[in-house]
C-alpha cells in the first residue's frame, strides 16, 4: 500500500488559480504549480498527466463552482437575483473570476482530451437547459422577451465584471448593487412590456 498523497488536486488547482491571477494562462505550467504549491513536480504529474490536463481541470473546476452557485440562485424563487449573484461570485473569488473571464480558449481547450472536452460540453449544456427553463418561466411572469431576460441574466453581469477584471481587480460591492437594481426593474415592470 502506497503512502497517501501529500498534495490534493484541489491544492494544486488553488496554486494554479493564484498563478493565473498573477500572470495569466502562460504562468500556469506544471513546474510553476509545483513550486507555488510547495509540492514535488511528481505530485503534479501524478494528478495531471500534462499541461492540457491541468488547464482543463482548472477550467472545469472553476466552471463547476460558478455553475453550482449561479444555478442555485437561477433555479430558485427569485431567478433574476442570479445576475447579482454572478457579480458577487466574481467579487468573492477574484482569481477564479479571472479564469472564467479569460475563457477556455486561452486555457488551451483545443488541446484538451476528448473526455475533458466532453465534460466541458456537458457543463455548457446543463447551464443552457436551466436558462431555457427559467427564461420560459420569466417570460410568462414578466412579459419580457427572451433577449431582454438573457441580457440581464448573462450579458449584464459579464459586462460589469469585465470592466474590473480587465484591470486585474474584483468588482466592488457597488457593482453587485447596480446589477441587482437593474435586474429588479425587469421583475417590477411585470406586465408593462406588451412588446
Q: Care to give the gist of this entry?
A:
The protein is an all-alpha fold and 195 residues long. The protein has helices at 9-23, 30-37, 41-47, 51-74, 81-92, 94-102, 114-142, 146-165, 173-188. The chain is 72% helix and 0% strand.
| Cα radius of gyration in angstroms | 19 Å
Oligomer classification: single chain
Largest sheet: none
Low-confidence stretches: 190-195
Measure the end-to-end span: 68 Å
The fraction of residues in strands falls at under 5%
SS elements, strand count: 0
Percent helix: over 70%
Give the tags.
single chain; mainly alpha; 195 residues; elongated
What does this structure look like?
The chain has 195 residues and is mainly alpha-helical. α5 runs antiparallel to α9 (173-188). The protein has helices at residues 9-23, 30-37, 41-47, 51-74, 81-92, 94-102, 114-142, 146-165, 173-188. The model is unreliable at 190-195 (pLDDT under 50). It contains nine helices and no strands.
Topology:
Blueprint: H1 9-23, H2 30-37, H3 41-47, H4 51-74, H5 81-92, H6 94-102, H7 114-142, H8 146-165, H9 173-188
Amino acid at each position: 500500500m502506497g503512502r497517501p498523497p501529500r498534495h490534493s488536486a484541489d491544492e494544486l488547482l488553488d496554486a494554479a488559480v493564484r498563478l493565473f491571477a498573477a500572470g495569466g494562462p502562460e504562468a500556469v505550467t506544471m513546474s510553476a504549480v509545483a513550486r507555488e504549491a510547495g509540492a514535488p513536480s511528481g505530485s503534479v504529474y501524478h494528478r495531471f498527466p500534462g499541461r492540457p490536463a491541468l488547464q482543463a481541470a482548472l477550467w472545469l473546476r472553476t466552471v463547476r463552482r460558478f455553475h453550482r452557485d449561479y444555478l442555485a440562485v437561477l433555479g430558485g424563487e427569485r431567478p433574476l437575483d442570479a445576475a447579482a449573484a454572478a457579480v458577487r461570485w466574481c467579487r468573492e473569488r477574484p482569481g477564479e473570476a479571472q479564469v472564467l473571464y479569460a475563457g477556455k480558449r486561452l486555457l488551451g481547450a483545443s488541446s484538451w482530451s476528448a473526455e475533458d472536452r466532453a465534460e466541458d460540453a456537458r457543463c455548457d449544456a446543463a447551464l443552457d437547459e436551466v436558462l431555457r427553463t427559467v427564461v420560459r418561466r420569466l417570460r410568462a411572469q414578466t412579459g419580457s422577451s427572451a433577449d431582454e431576460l438573457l441580457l440581464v441574466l448573462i450579458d449584464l453581469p459579464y459586462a460589469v465584471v469585465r470592466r474590473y477584471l480587465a484591470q486585474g481587480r474584483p468588482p466592488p460591492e457597488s457593482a453587485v448593487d447596480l446589477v441587482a437594481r437593474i435586474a429588479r426593474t425587469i421583475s417590477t415592470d411585470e406586465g408593462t412590456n406588451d412588446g
